[in-house]
């Protein structure tokens, strides 16, 4: 499995970014998640969705502002109304098997390289 992210950048507070993650070599059943991390903090799960594009789930910190979608092997995290506290390195991650109710990094098997989001 290989995950390639794109779409990070620098925006002003209130702005939007569209993060993408393209997967290759995917298993027959999988779940895609997005995590973010700032230095010296644990990686936080913020959104996840099934391979078929169903059952999206969000962390409270991004609910109502971020939207996750899945189209075949391309995943998109639309981030709106960005706040300074959203600044972080964002990672997509794939879990073999179905999605779990929780979003913990230890449940995901494969990771992208990360894309930086800066909000000023």
Model description:
The chain is mainly beta and 120 residues long. The protein contains no helices and eleven strands. The strands form two sheets. Strands 2, 4, 5, 6, 9, 10 and 11 form a seven-stranded mixed beta sheet that branches. The chain has a four-stranded antiparallel beta sheet with strand order 1-3-8-7, with no helix packed on it. A hairpin with a 6-residue loop joins strand 4 (30-37) and strand 5. It is globular, with a radius of gyration of 13 Å.
Give a quick rundown of the structure.
With 120 residues, the chain is an all-beta fold. The protein is 0% helix and 51% strand. The protein is globular, with a radius of gyration of 13 Å.
Question: What's the layout of helices and strands?
Answer:
Elements: E1 2-6, E2 9-11, E3 17-24, E4 30-37, E5 44-50, E6 57-58, E7 66-71, E8 74-79, E9 88-96, E10 110-111, E11 115-119
Parallel strand pairs: 2-11
Antiparallel strand pairs: 1-3, 3-8, 4-5, 4-9, 5-6, 7-8, 9-10, 9-11
């Amino acid at each position: 499995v290989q995950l390639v992210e794109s779409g990070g950048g620098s925006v002003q507070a209130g702005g939007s970014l569209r993060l993408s993650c393209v997967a290759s070599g995917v298993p027959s059943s999988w779940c895609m998640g997005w995590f973010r991390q700032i230095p010296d903090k644990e990686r936080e799960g913020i959104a996840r969705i099934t391979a078929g594009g169903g059952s999206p789930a969000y962390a409270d910190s991004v609910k109502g502002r971020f939207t996750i979608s899945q189209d075949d092997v391309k995943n998109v995290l639309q981030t709106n109304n960005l706040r300074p506290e959203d600044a972080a390195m964002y990672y997509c991650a794939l879990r073999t098997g179905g999605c779990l109710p929780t979003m913990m990094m230890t449940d995901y098997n494969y990771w992208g390289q990360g894309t930086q989001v800066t909000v000023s």
